[in-house]
Amino acid sequence: MSIRNNSNKLVNPMAREAMDNFKLEVAQSLDISNDYQSGYWGNMTSRECGSVGGEMVKKMVEDYENKIANDTTTNYKQNSQTEQNNYNLKNKVGSFEPQQ
Question: Per-10-residue mean pLDDT for the chain, 100 residues long?
């Protein structure tokens, strides 16, 4: 007898409804059978479920890539400022030469 251990937990439990809606939206866009509308996915083939999950991942990655592409200039400025702070700290400390 095996005990079911579901490790697919959402980081933010409040996102469950949004993820379920996203899953249904992707299933509709892929034009797979309408069995998913009942909320029970057991009648779906592995291929159909996998295509829904794969498409969800593609869309999430695409959204994240677009987000970081738009935030690139902000991150660059922050990284540049951090590098300048590190450089200034190095000048304050001076050079380090090991004792002989």
Answer: 62 87 90 79 87 93 92 62 56 60
* Whether the Cβ atoms of residue 13 and residue 20 lie closer than 8 Å to each other: no
Q: How many CA atoms lie within 13 A of 20 on its CB side?
A: 11
- Within 8 A by CB and 6+ apart from 27, the residues are 36, 52
Secondary structure (DSSP) of 77-94: HHHHHHHHHHHHHHHHH-
Q: Classify residue 93 as exposed, middle or buried by CB count within 10 Å of its CB (0-12, 13-18, 19+).
A: exposed
Tokens for 4, please give them: 């079911």
